[in-house]
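Appendix B, example 12.
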Amino acid sequence: MIILGGTTFICFTNEYAMLTITRLSSVCLVFLLTLFTAGLSAQNGEVRASPAASASQTLGADTEITFNYSRPAVKGRTVWGGIVPYGMAEGNKYSNDKPFPWRAGANENTTVTFSKDVMVEGEMLPAGTYGLHMIPAEEGEWTVIFNKVSDIWGSYQYDESQDALRVEVSPEEAPMQEWLTFGFDDNTASSTEAYLHWEELKVPFAIAVVE
């Protein structure tokens, strides 16, 4: 008899068994412990509606660019001007009633890491990891924000005073993309066009090595 997690299990043997009672009990115990551990893993494992993802690109000899983000899906919803508002989002209890930008993804901060100094849309940005935020516009240019704080949930506690760089970019129409994604286009030895692509919109911004 084995008692595991408040449940009693009985392992039977008989006169024809090749294993002794002791050995049979040991086999049962190992088997039940395996099932119990697997059950705990399944219970504690978190399956997110917006799974984590990353995208990387090397520029020049050794300039690494890496996006880490979570990928929400469209799921038939209105994205732009819907679940992602134009302009700054209205303040709420999580933001202490302060308006805040879009997190450019879901869950924790979307981040971008540069292993060396780079030029973003012609503006210098030092090496480091930045929280990436955006201010969508119904018409005209969007604001892409690189913030020195990169470890908060969403954009609720966004602090403009920590901005390292803001650039203005023009969004483009694009083929339908169900799951938000980051990527790279028009790569050369020293430059790339990074982009966010979701639904039928792409938000590109140019990145180049420092000459």
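Confidence is low (pLDDT under 50) at residues 1-43. The chain has two domains: 2-44, 52-209.
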